Amino acid sequence: MKNRTDKKPTAGLLAGDVGGTKTTLAVFNSASGPRVPLVESTFPSGDYPSLEVLVRKFLSQTKTKVDRACFGVAGPVVDGQAKITNLPWMIHAATLAAALGLASVHLYNDLVTLAHAVPFLGEKDLHVLNTGRPASGGAIAVIAPGTGLGEAFLTRDATGYRACASEGGHADFAPSNAVEAGLMLYLMERFGHVSYERVCSGSGLVNIYDYLKDSGRAEETDRPAEQAASAQDRATVIVKEALNEERACSICQTALTLFISILGAEAGNLALKVMASGGVYLGGGILHRILPVLGKGTFMEAFTRKGRMSHLMEGFPVYVILNPGAALLGAARIGLSS
Hints:
The protein is α/β, with parallel strands linked by helices and 338 residues long. The chain has two domains: 2-116 and 325-337, ATPase, nucleotide binding domain (Nucleotidyltransferase, domain 5); 169-321, Hexokinase, domain 1. Helix content is 38%, strand content 23%. A six-stranded mixed β-sheet has the order 1-4-3-2-5-9, with helices on both faces. Strands 10-15-14-11-12-13 form a six-stranded mixed β-sheet, with helices on both faces. It has a three-stranded antiparallel β-sheet with strand order 6-7-8.
């Protein structure tokens, strides 16, 4: 836990970025603002039976008082309730507020909180993949592969940008070539419905790896490949071995290249659907690790490959969000302004 102040504790805002793999909680107040948490800590989500239990542990570790909370959660939020997509957690805002003794608890999809942060990110927070031709006030698309695949978008009105939720990551996967068509058929046999999240997330990278191996399109011929096949966190190993400069794993490289291409295509799909002339912003921890190869052409080739709309796609700016706390920043901005 990181304590960022020695001032006397005052009631503040509890903000959280609640994901399928990890949850980051922090306390903010109006004086410090949304970029400077008074206290912050990260927990492995799967180690806890509920968000309530996790929050209680966090609050027991800090003497900083809170009277309200705002959480970005990895799942759809309807009428103040959320089911975390990759965890057995049901969250009810009113019930959680009563259990924790808080005046209010607000829930938002985690990509909505990330989207809220986007207009306030600076040059140091971003890596440019495509300069494009940004349109002032144009819609903005946000897409983030992590444990799942999150999507959101922003539109501008008279008061500024407004973030909108989306569950587009669960829309039907659309193959763009024979290899991807084989991947879809392979996953249809396993899951029935094949969404973009099945091929464009941490578990999606593992699914791609298994397809390449089982279909014979790539072979496990060395130790790194065997490690990638059996590790508990297989996606991390696949990325690591694909980027190994001394002894790169060929099947891992192939899997990662296919993953990047599919991500580029779906980011382009989202950009088309919301006419993202204001830019496309990519988030998620996976992208931080693969940044060295993300800009080598595969992503943008797939992003712009939209037939008669290819020229339009070339004009959309594309950025990778480097700030790992952007979603927490968004949750804090919402909570402090409400």
